[in-house]
Design goal:
By secondary structure, the chain is of the alpha/beta class. Helix content is about 30%, strand content about 35%. The chain is elongated and about 65 Å long. The mean pLDDT is about 90.
Length: about 240
Amino acid sequence: MMRALIVDDELHPREELALLLAQTGEFELVGQAENGVEALAAIRRERPEVVFLDIRMPGVSGFDLLSMVDDDVMPQVVFVTAHDEFALRAFDEDAVDYLLKPVSPERLARTVERLKQRSAPSARPAFASAPITRIPCAGKRTIKLVNVSDIELVKSTLSGVYVVSGQGEYGTELTLQVLEARAGLLRCHKQYLVNAAAIDEVSLGDGSNATIRTRSGHSVPVSRRHLSRVRELLGI
């Protein structure tokens, strides 16, 4: 059986699809998510083999979501949408399949056969590598969307990954690896990224390390491993 996750912001379509998946006898449903933050957490936690993903969701679209998933947990993707134009784009972009709402058992059966023929992603799909411009962060019953241009630093701690801007600090399900690769942030330490445009001052240490101060006064360490790269990019 294939481990499956359903992502859709509407309850009724999620429940309908969950019933259809159960009727095929081919899937173990490991979870349902109603937004991008929940979906990212579920993908990292449950490691589904396939995600049935709604494309048109508020805040973070299906395409946006996939650009935030790490390579090592990237599942097969079946887009689910009520809009023909999105379905055609999804198919062109190398999704396993797309399903138009309302989903029929007969059409789902064809998807099952395609999934069986492609048991694992051969490479990161083109639609999953788009640059990240806004980072979804969890709030109390809200999703805070932080513009990358507003970010000063990102830090990884024992309690999670946090995005820091001049307006505050927010937890996110994105990893440092994804943010470095697709949000254009600069790696300066094993546990830190910094926005080069937000750097106000660099204090050089004994030649093997340094400290960055951001425009809001945050202090960010630069490790010996990353110092030469930081100096090169900043021209110092």
